[in-house]
Design goal:
Blueprint (H helix, E strand, L loop, with lengths): L7 H15 L4 E2 L2 H8 L11 E3 L4 H13 L3 E5 L20 E5 L6 E4 L4 E4 L5 H8 L4 E2 L13 H7 L16 E6 L5 E5 L9 H9 L21 H4 L29 E8 L1 E2 L3 E8 L2 H14 L6 E6 H10 L1 H10 L4 H16 L6 H12 L6 H9 L2 E8 H15 L5 E4 L2 H24 L6
Parallel strand pairs: 2-4, 3-4
Antiparallel strand pairs: 1-2, 5-6, 6-10, 7-11, 8-9, 8-10, 12-14, 12-15, 13-14
Helix pairs in contact: 1-3, 2-11, 9-15, 10-15
The chain binds flavin-adenine dinucleotide (FAD).
């Protein structure tokens, strides 16, 4: 591959420009400082020319423009919790220099249409949106595992996140403000937010950031969707030849949605949802066909679709119980707000030890401590782990709870499998355990580097 990297003086000039645009403290170039942005949560790691953290949408625009004019690769990043790659470089064999733009300083959340919709800037987190909607008795589309660790609203849209959400499906919108590079190689700004904000990038971006628009500037008849309008129907097609949900499903790719970094997004407009009281059922079986039967029934025979469903195999249960214990206990004790700073601290400590060739030091220490502690999971879940290989967590609306209960009673009457209705604490802990499993695989790898690639 022919390298089109910048020469030393062009690099210096570009870095100087970045510093003028966002301030020197928001342009990171040292390996130890850029590490937590360059290294993916599960996959991907590579070198970058700089990590830039713009403080306004206009700064984001100017940084993107400068990087593209200098023929650099731009990687967009929010909380860097993505598990499928794309949030960081992957390897060191790129043909051009990489500028990584991390958007976490751009936290704005604007409620519109009485909170039935929301406009989120690139660094707005799911957790912050959840808190903002709480007084309205509403919630965001995505109430997903990584809400706990600071995942952004926008990263979710770019990744079509949220596959466990049976009714709503993956995060999706056709209303976004984004920039893409045209055929002439120029960056152009496209406003499909359905909000009248002016003509020039400067005007559009500053008016949006300061929420300088009126209700009359909001177009509610554009025909563009702010969530996936068809998923609830789609997921009921249980005899279709393709699954309802798979990565990079072309029907879920629309401008910002599913773009995974291929465009630079400045804001998305999304629907919000009325909060709904729910019950959690914990189902166990040694026969996977049971889960298929249950899924088919729940998706077609109940008045309402279930809210969310998560599968756990016994092997994953065990891995989460052992290697996800610290995440579980931390969130259980301190809540979610402190998690991003705990992750940042962990990364700084690991970066320090990596200078001496020691990898994953914090993981080894934390894991040794966790190994001493007894199991943290509710007794009924642990009993099910002994009895059953396959576990299904099911969250259903209270409205459908009786029908779900009756169905499960009848279904398991002459079967080996079984179920129980969780109390509030069990339900919360069951889903928290499922979340901890996602991180547990990473901990396992980091503490077993000789056995795992
Ligand atoms: C422990 C754990 C649990 C998880 N649980 C779930 C779960 O329950 N459900 C689920 O769906 N996922 C889950 N995930 C995966 C991940 O958290 C989600 O994909 C999340 O939505 C990503 O958000 P983020 O802010 O971290 O985005 P990032 O990882 O920073 O970015 C994700 C993608 O979006 C792009 N992007 C970000 N910002 C912009 C921008 N401004 N412009 C253009 N592109 C941009 C990036 O380039 C990247 O391709 C989990 C991850 C972990 C580590």
């Amino acid at each position: 591959m022919t390298s089109k990297s910048l020469n030393a003086s062009d690099k210096t000039a570009l870095l100087t420009k970045f510093r003028q645009l966002v301030g020197a403290s928001h342009v990171l170039t040292q390996d130890s400082k850029t590490r937590r942005f360059r290294k993916g949560m599960r996959t991907g790691e590579g070198k970058v020319l700089a990590v830039i953290q713009p403080g306004s949408l206009l700064e984001q625009w100017h940084i993107m423009k400068a990087a593209i004019e200098a023929n650099c690769i731009v990687i967009m990043q929010a909380a860097n919790t993505g598990l499928t790659g794309g949030s960081t470089p992957d390897g060191d064999d790129y043909d051009r220099d990489i500028v990584l733009i991390n958007t976490l300083r751009l936290k704005g959340i604007q409620l519109i249409n009485e909170g039935k919709q929301v406009v989120c800037l690139p660094g707005a987190t799911l957790d912050a949106l959840e808190q903002k909607l709480l007084p309205l008795d509403r919630e965001p589309h995505s109430v997903i595992g990584s809400s706990c660790i600071g995942a952004s609203v926008l990263g979710g849209v770019c990744n079509n996140s949220g596959g466990a959400l049976v009714r709503r499906g993956p995060a999706y919108t056709e209303m976004a403000l984004y920039a893409s590079v045209n055929e002439q190689g120029e960056l152009t700004l496209i406003n499909h937010l359905g909000i009248e904000l002016g003509e020039t990038p400067e005007e559009i971006l500053s008016r949006l950031e300061s929420a300088s628009y009126e209700a009359t500037d909001i177009d509610n008849d554009s025909g563009r969707a702010a969530s996936d309008p068809a998923y609830a129907e789609h997921v009921r097609q249980i005899d279709a030849p393709t699954p309802a949900r798979f990565n990079a499903d072309p029907s879920r790719l629309y401008e910002a949605s599913g773009s995974a970094g291929k465009v630079g997004v400045f804001a998305v407009r999304l629907d919000t949802y009325e909060k709904e009281p729910s019950d959690v059922y914990y189902i166990g079986s040694n026969n996977p066909d049971d889960l298929t039967e249950i899924r088919r029934h729940l998706l077609t025979q109940l008045p309402d679709l279930p809210i969310a469903g998560e599968y756990i195999h016994r092997g994953a249960f065990d891995m989460g119980e052992k290697y996800g214990k610290d995440s579980f206990l931390f969130i259980n004790k301190f809540g979610t707000a402190k998690v991003p700073s705990a992750f940042a601290l962990k990364s700084r400590i690991d970066a320090f030890f990596e200078r001496f060739g020691l990898r994953s030091v914090t993981d080894h220490i934390i894991q040794q401590l966790m190994n001493i502690l007894p199991s943290h999971l509710p007794k009924r879940m642990r009993d099910y782990r002994e009895r059953y290989e396959h576990h299904l967590l099911l969250r259903v609306s209270k409205k459908s709870s009786t029908a779900s209960n009756e169905f499960l009673d009848t279904y398991f009457k002459d079967k080996e499998g079984s179920y129980f209705k969780c109390d509030d604490e069990e339900g919360r802990k069951a889903f928290l355990h499922r979340f901890a499993i996602a991180g547990a695989a990473i901990r396992y790898r980091d503490t077993h580097r000789r056995q795992v690639e």
